[in-house]
Amino acid sequence: MSRATPRKVGLIGWGAIGRVVGGALAAGQVPGAELVCVVDNRPLAGTAPAPQRTVEQAMETCDLIVEAAGQGVVREWGAAILASGTDLLIASTGALTDDTLTDKLLHTTPGRVYFTGGAVGGLDLLQAVRAMGPLDEVRLTTTKLPTTLEQPWMDAELLRRMRSATGPVEVMAGTARDVPVKFPKSTNVAASVALAVGDPDAVRVSVVADPAAAHTSHVIEASGAHGAYRFEVRHLPDAANPATSQVVPYAVLRSLAALAGRTGQIL
């Protein structure tokens, strides 16, 4: 059964993720949730199925705001949204490698903050295992097309290697604290794994560019005193934004359905 009063939802971002989420909400595909407004830094000229508003206006009229616009929105507006009493569902988990920001979001009230798992599964199990004790090793290997991984900070030699590659090329190795900062639109998965295990410095991340990567691949490997775990997912990239996977907006919709009170959800 859905909530007696529908969640009034504001959506920040009208890109590849936001358009799918907003369209589904407007079509009534999430019982118990109603799209009230869309926030975007570009004039939408009536192309969205709800009025375009500012973030401040969304906080006044919504009880739940969905972030689908990037890490900068989480940094700039996350705490203010929660302080206004509005709940916040975050898709761009990469922003949460900043401990100060994460602590602030987790302790700002009266709004509540939630995170979507995005392009990977198994995070619920990793959280359950973490409750039994720390994991000894956690590794994430993300493989994507080279063009989706190019960044302004890359030097000419690395760009040359990526653009001329005939097979997989590792473009960065580090922790789940380091990597999302360097790839703000491509590696939210690293931060999501870190949230699940409770320590971004404990998650070793390898980012691989592969010209043959028709699918985006994420491989999570974890082990500890209580067992060993391996999750592998392979997604088609979104046609409108190849830096993200097609499944991400549907992960957001699943989270929205849970927050709206839909029964039958695996939590």
Question: What's the end-to-end separation, in Å?
Answer: 16 Å
- Tell the overall outline: globular
Enumerate the spans where pLDDT stays under 50 for 5 or more consecutive residues. none
Radius of gyration: 19 Å
Q: Quick check: average pLDDT?
A: 93
Largest sheet: 5 strands, parallel
Report helical residue fraction: 25-40%
Structural class, from secondary structure content?
Answer: alpha/beta
Query: Which range does the strand content fall in?
Result: 15-25%
Beta strands, count:
10
Strand order of the largest sheet: 2-1-3-4-5
- Reading the helices and strands in chain order gives EHEHEHEHEHEHHEHHEEEH
If helices are DSSP runs of H or I spanning 4 or more residues, what is the number of helices? 10
Question: How does this structure look, described?
Answer:
This protein is of the alpha/beta class and 267 residues long. The chain is built from 10 helices and 10 strands. The protein has helices at 16-26, 55-61, 71-83, 99-107, 123-130, 146-149, 156-164, 179-182, 188-197, 248-259; strands at residues 7-12, 33-39, 64-67, 87-90, 113-115, 135-144, 169-175, 203-209, 216-224, 227-235. The chain has a 5-stranded parallel beta sheet, sandwiched between helices. It has a 5-stranded mixed beta sheet with strand order 7-8-6-9-10. Helix 1 (16-26) packs across helix 10 (248-259) and helix 5 (123-130) runs parallel beside helix 9 (188-197). The longest helix has 13 residues, at 71-83. The chain is globular.
